[in-house]
Amino acid sequence: MSHLDPHGSAEPRGWDRPDASAPAPGLPWPEPEIDPGQWHRRPAALSDAYAESPARSHPYTDVTAGGDPAAVNGHRDPDDSEYPTTQLEPIRDVEPEPEPESARPSGRRQRGRRRAGADRPPTQQPVPSRAGRNLPAAIAVGVGLGALILVPLFFYPPAFVMVVAAAVGVGIWEMARAVRRSGAHPPLVPLIAGGVLTVGLAWFSGPDALSLGLLVTVLGTMVWRLGDGPRGFQRDLTAAALIAVYVPFLGGFAALLAAPEDGQWRVLVTLAAVVLSDTGGYAAGVNFGKHPMAPSVSPKKSWEGFAGSVTAAALGSALLLWLFLDVAPWWGALFGLAISGAAVLGDLAESMIKRDLGVKDMSNLLPGHGGLMDRLDSILFALPTAYLLLAVFVPVLE
Question: Taking Cα atoms as reference points, which of 192, 169, 338, 162 lies closest to residue 258?
């Protein structure tokens, strides 16, 4: 329905218009008695009158054609003096004066006000290290973890085993939480219970009990998972077996290392070799790293960093094993080379798992490190390597 032109009427405007409550003759709006279904139909007489109206042009057509500027659409507006707004000067774009310093509020920054200015430089954002982590926080957490391990190791070895069992439980939780991103849901309760049992059996009964603990953990997980039905059973059991081997079985070798009378020194040289490998690799990679070692798995690892890892671990282990375990320096250097290689492989293995799962860190439990498994990845692979090599270099006397 075409509406009437709002400027097409010759009636006066403003307060000269008749009372709106009085019925206006000739309006096209439907009367109450007209059928609502006919409202969209315009009377023929109204259509003809509307088409012949001289006000069908644009409201300013008469002005552009040379007509009287005060007469628009065939009528003249009332005297402009009756409208007070016509006496006002037009608004011009004037740049506001700057706010004086004394008028600015002090204290907390007002909403919408810029933080930086000529007298106040922008806040400097902390620049991360080239390794991509908060180095001071990482060092502080690393020192704390070292104290948590070494103090019970030298003063009360059973407490060290309890620390290992707690670390295994946290690592199992982080791994189970991460693999859920792939759709697998390994049962957490039997995994943690079996992991703690595996570490305890290794401490009390040796390597055969360690294998028995792994078997019990996998079987217990399978029986527990049967209660959830057959859907996804194979996927969940595969994830559970991977976690059982990766965390409690490999972690149980820490208990095997600490079991002999000189166990504290065996654990110490193993951890020292891993730390030296990580430190040497970090220093060499940051300063000299140019050739990526495995760009599709861990882009920040370089061959220069790997050379720094094995060099630092070999030199440090040669000295430590000679001092604490009376092992010839060349055998100590070989021990360091093997531990460094195992540590790098463990780091790459977890990087591949995280990349496959689409996660950056296993958790955010440790500031500057990510999750506990992000620190245990290289240690877990180094523990069985150290146990086997030290069993040859320093046999345990029954």
Answer: 162
Answer whether residue 312 is part of any domain: yes
Helix or strand holding residue 57 (H, E): none
Q: For residues 176 and 170, give the distance between their C-alpha atoms in angstroms, rounded to a whole number.
A: 10
pTM: 0.66
- Residue at 117 is within a domain: no
User: Helices 329-357 and 373-393: crossing angle, nearest 10°?
Assistant: 150
Domain count, the chain: 1
Distance set, CA 85 to CA 15, 69, 71, 93, 180 (Å): 15, 18, 19, 19, 71
Task: Kindly report, residue by residue over 99-134, the tens digit of the pLDDT.
Answer: 555 555 554 554 545 555 555 555 555 455 555 556
| 246/214 Cα distance (integer angstroms) | 10
272: nearest Cα among 155, 138, 386: 386
Q: What percent of the chain has pLDDT over 70?
A: 65
Q: Could you give phi then psi for residue 86, rounded to 5 degrees?
A: -75, -15
Q: Is residue 22 part of a domain?
A: no
| Pair type for strands 71-72 and 298-302 | unpaired
Segments forming the whole domain that contains residue 293: 135-145+154-393
The CB-side HSE value for 73 (13 A sphere, CA atoms) comes to 17
pLDDT digits (tens, 9 = 90+) for 22-74: 555 555 545 555 555 554 455 554 445 444 444 444 444 444 444 454 444 44
3-state secondary structure (DSSP) of residue 330:
helix
DSSP code string of 102-143:
GGSPPSSPPTT--S--SSSPPPPPPPPPTTSS-HHHHHHHHH
Best CA proximity match to 248, nearest among 291, 279, 217: 217
CA 200 – CA 239 distance, rounded (Å): 23
DSSP secondary structure string for all residues of 62-95: HHHTT--TTEETTEE---GGG-GGGGSPPP---P
Tell me the helix, strand and coil percentages in the chain, rounded to 5.
Answer: 60, 5, 35
Buried b (16+ CB within 10 A) or exposed e, 61-86: ebeeeeeeeeebbeeeeeeeeeeeee
Rounded to whole angstroms, the Cα distance separating 359 from 181 reads 9
Residue 82 belongs to some domain of the structure: no
